[in-house]
Each structure stands twice: as C-alpha cells, then as structure tokens.
Amino acid sequence: MDVRMPGVDGIRATEELIRTMAAPPRIMVVTTFGNDSYVYDALRAGASGFLLKRAEAEQLLRAVRLVASGDCLLFPEAVRQPAARHGAAERSSRRRDALRERLTEREAAVLRLMATGLSNTGIATELAVGPETVKTHVARVLAELGARDRTQAVITAYECGFITPSCP
Fold first, then answer.
1. Is residue 4 a part of any domain in this protein?
2. Is residue 1 in some structural domain?
C-alpha cells in the first residue's frame, strides 16, 4: 500500500480493508515519505509494516516475505518517537497501571523486548526460555491488549506510557 494514492490515501484504505474484511489482509506500507506521522498512522490503521521505497531490493523482498508469513515488520526506531509524540495526549497513569495489572511480570518483559524489535527466538535467548514459551507469552500479551499483532501491542504500550522511548 502506498501512502499517497489517487482517490483515497493508503492509510484510509488500510483502515477500511482491516475494518471490513472478514479475513483482513497483511498490509505493508511502502512509500517515499518517511514522515513520522505516516509511519504511526499506517501502523495504527492496521498495517503490518512500513518500508521506504528507497530500500534495497533484497530488503524489500525480506520485508514482503516477513509480512506475508504473518509476522510484522517492526522497526523500533520508526515507532518509538512517533508513538511517544502521538500517544502523549492519550497517556494516563490509570491506563499504564491497568496494563501492568493485566500482564504477568514475564509477559511485561516479553512486551518490552518486543518493543526492541526482537523476534521470538531473540526474546527466548534473552530470557533463557524456549521459543514456544515466548510464543505463548506473546499470544497472551496480544490477547490482554486486544492487539491484532505485535506492532499494535507495542504501539499500545508506548501510548499508555508502559514503555517509553529510550534516549541515546
């Protein structure tokens, strides 16, 4: 999906497809515009990834394969600042505390590691558990947050202040 298209923009088209289709497609936004707002809006609309058209061919192929396989193309650096800025108005200690109460300590750790962009295998290595255990924790995090995928879960965590952008 492209951000700018004739008739309707790609973000609105993504929202419409996700909202109306019984089996929503996996959507990756590919655009020339690296604007933070576009990244954030595309991911909030339900896109599973965001990539700039200037990406190398091999990177584009990997991204398409990743999204098509059901995973998300989550670049933490592309989400942290936009989510922090856009989510500032939505943040509240009540939402953050409610999220902390719903997640176990291990699920919270998995969510934080998801936000760094680690795969299930990477999270398993970091936590010294098996990949299937991580898969179970990820599924529980998604269910608790009512998130469609990892990207949506991470955005929700940023918006409510459960995760904050790291400062270099």
1. no
2. no
